[in-house]
Amino acid sequence: MTLDRRSTLADVARLAGVSLGSASRALSVPNEVKPATLAKVQQAVAQLGYVRNGAAQALASRRTRTVAAIYPTLSNPIFSVSIHKLQQTLWKYGYQLLVASHEYEPQREIDLLRAIVERGVDAIVLVGTDHSHEVYELARQYGLPYVLTWSFDDSTYPHCVGFSYYDAAYEMAKVVVESGHTRIALCNGFEVSNERARARVAGTRAALKAAGISLRRDWVTEQPFNFEGGREAVRRFMGSEDCPTVLICGTDLQAIGAIDECRIRGIRVPEDLSITGFDDIEHAAIVVPPLTTVHVPTEKIGILAAQRIVELIEGREMPAFSPLETTVVIRKSLLSIQKTSSLGRSKRASLSASG
Amino acid sequence: MTLDRRSTLADVARLAGVSLGSASRALSVPNEVKPATLAKVQQAVAQLGYVRNGAAQALASRRTRTVAAIYPTLSNPIFSVSIHKLQQTLWKYGYQLLVASHEYEPQREIDLLRAIVERGVDAIVLVGTDHSHEVYELARQYGLPYVLTWSFDDSTYPHCVGFSYYDAAYEMAKVVVESGHTRIALCNGFEVSNERARARVAGTRAALKAAGISLRRDWVTEQPFNFEGGREAVRRFMGSEDCPTVLICGTDLQAIGAIDECRIRGIRVPEDLSITGFDDIEHAAIVVPPLTTVHVPTEKIGILAAQRIVELIEGREMPAFSPLETTVVIRKSLLSIQKTSSLGRSKRASLSASG
DNA sequence: CTGAAAGCGCTAACAC
DNA sequence: GTGTTAGCGCTTTCAG
Fold it and tell me: Among candidates B182, B332, B199, B333, which has minimal Cα distance to B258?
């Protein structure tokens, strides 16, 4: 029953008294064999505790039934939650997930992809639309289908499962402006190789511009997408007399770090400084004060990306994807202040804006 | 240069003017071929953009150069951080990581493992020591080396890379007792199939007992290891007049949920209820009030597990692992209260304990 | 619907 | 050191 040598399909076929080919078919296309044959094979499989050899199967069929996902990081819960959904959905369709993270290093993404291609996967899931030329080249060269996730922008690739960071940032900034703020600072991520970071500034800038406000160059900073990034932004902007009344952050992680830095330095949030986030991670509702942020379709991205990649692998045509929705979630970290005159913060009008 | 058909080692060998065998050796054992041969092969590889076929390699060599890790969940940052380290370290040694999560479902762990075995991996990393019989059986049957992580207990398997949850919980509870608490409640995880949860209660109970306190049955609850679990514990214990002065949680996630639930219900932490955590995730230092918790060697576990699994795969003998250390981190969420008489909370002594 | 047979691309003896 | 060759375990034609 438990043999020393791992038993093979040939063993199964022999025991079942059928040919190798029939045994193979019984396992992969059960409805193309006679019920009797199927039964004999299944019986033999059970008896031997037979388990397919994936490598042999992959070699012969040129399909590995695994897809790889290369993410920026696993440290942002927004990604780990999405990956979990991706994995679960893929699993349902009979695929495994190989996950790797490049920690925002373009070169590491290339290296990972190369290793993954070498290992053999049926498709890949990437985050964002801005990748090195080598990445696309590798995918093309090996005929690997891929879906791009999170970002949905004006790039022409039809398999982008995501939302518009530009629109999301625009909406967030609009809410900020409508809350009466004019002194607005932005804690963004690094814009190089990251269209999401670029879209966030662009969207923010556009919304401010529409309100007649211009985003001061010295009130924009590029910081890592983690607690420390947000802290640093606070240190940078809140030192002098001339400081913003709101800090728009690129991720909730940054925003939470910023809130904590404010607490440490005795800056009251939102009375002295409003802070907004992006992502709406579970913690966002729990920090003190709760975070005004952009809710994004984290789980949906995982699920839809999985479905799409399976369709692609199995050669079914898919219509181009339409962007998902995001919504601004208003909580306490954004203060609604009296409207100021457009030329500074001196005059106070009697109206107060609502979000 | 970029062929239609993915080029094979045979193509490389032909182009380099060497035999298939030499080409293979040039790639896998470069120092066993003449430098001139090596150079020719490398040149051909570059020219063709050759990439190994992992399936063929795996089939012929019986090694996949990938290891699988089955984790309870990716939603706890403690695990995602550790997985990241595991992955990075494995990568350095030339191995890939296949990650899956069973969400605390024993049956799902078995299913995942079966799929993973079928797919083919060189080894597996599991969390904890308490697994279904089938899990060990599968590993044994296919001769798969494995390391057990996080937990280090009295099970006899020599490759457990972890720490003693019992000792850690004991220390935490000791600190709680020394802070003057006697009315102590425990928010634990589900104990079935989870020796870590069991060790936590056992350690806590032992520490209380050593102080002459017994853990009330109705002040112990099994909850999921997430925010909601902590919230529920607060709801359950803080309804009546007869309530604890401290809630010891099994994870920081539970503790953070508990703190938030207290905030919602107007229970002051730590004045009305002290709360302690376990794990020391990054958020622990940031919540308000900052969390007293057990710091655990998250990254070390990832790194050491990776190293050990590689040694095991490559057949090197390893001495049995010695447990890692944990430390209690004292922050504001645990109130140091005046010593009460052993028979209630009526009398106040003038001493106050320190942690 | 089934059996026979030809590979999939690589590694690992084995002889030279 | 290097070339030759026999598989690794499976899928997939192709006849029948």
Answer: B333
The Cα A120–Cα B65 span in angstroms is 12
Q: What is the pTM of this model?
A: 0.90
The two counts, helices (H) then strands (E), for chain A are: 12, 13
Cis status, amide bond into A289, omega within 30 of 0:
yes
| Kind and range of the H or E run holding B248 | strand B246-249
Q: Which has the closest alpha carbon to A321: A197, A136, A156, A124?
A: A156
Cα–Cα distance between A296 and A82 in angstroms, integer?
Answer: 11
How far, rounded to the nearest angstrom, does the alpha carbon of residue A112 sit from its chain's CA centroid? Answer: 17
Tell me, what CATH number does A140's domain have? 3.40.50.2300
Supply the range of the domain harboring residue B138. Answer: 61-163+298-323
Tokens of B256: 């953070």
Total count of domains within chain A = 3
- Using a CB-CB distance cutoff of 8 angstroms, which residues of chain B are in contact with residue A227? 282, 286
* B83 and B175 within one domain: no
Residue B268 located in a structural domain = yes
CB A109 within 8 A of CB A101: no
> What is the mean pLDDT of the segment spanning A207-230?
97
Work out the angle at residue B27's Cα, subtended by the Cα atoms of residues B25 and B29, and round it to the nearest 5 degrees: 55
**B196 near B203, Cβ under 8 Å?**
no
Cα separation, B98 vs A99, in Å, equals 7
For A336-339, the CB contacts below 8 A with 24+ separation are A336/A179, A336/A180, A337/A179, A337/A180, A337/A181, A337/A245, A338/A180, A339/A180
Q: Cα–Cα distance between B63 and B312 in angstroms, integer?
A: 13
- What are the tens digits of pLDDT across the range B146-175? 999 999 999 999 999 999 999 999 999 999
DSSP for A83-96? Answer: HHHHHHHHHHTT-E
> Which residues, other chains included, contact B37 with Cβ-Cβ below 8 Å and sequence gap of 6+?
B16, B18, B22, B26
Contacts of A119 (CB under 8 A, 6+ apart): A98, B54, B64, B65, B66, B96
| Residue of A51, A66, A71, A332 best to disrupt the B interface, most CBs of B under 10 A | A51
pLDDT of residue A339: 59
Q: Which chain A residues are within 8 Å of B286, Cβ to Cβ?
A: 227, 256-257, 260, 287
pLDDT band for A315, please (50, 70, 90 cuts): confident
Dump pLDDT digits (tens) for A106-163.
Answer: 999 999 999 999 999 999 999 999 999 999 999 998 889 999 999 999 999 999 999 9
| Contacts with A253 from chain B: Cβ below 8 Å | none
* Higher pLDDT pick, B257 / B140: B257
Residues B173 and B157 in one domain: no
In this structure, are B123 and B203 located in the same domain?
no
Nearest to B66 among A84, A97, A119 (CB): A119
Neighbouring residues of A134: CB distance < 8 A, sequence distance ≥ 6: A110, A113
Q: B260 and A286 in contact by Cβ < 8 A? A: yes
A89 & A224 share domain: no
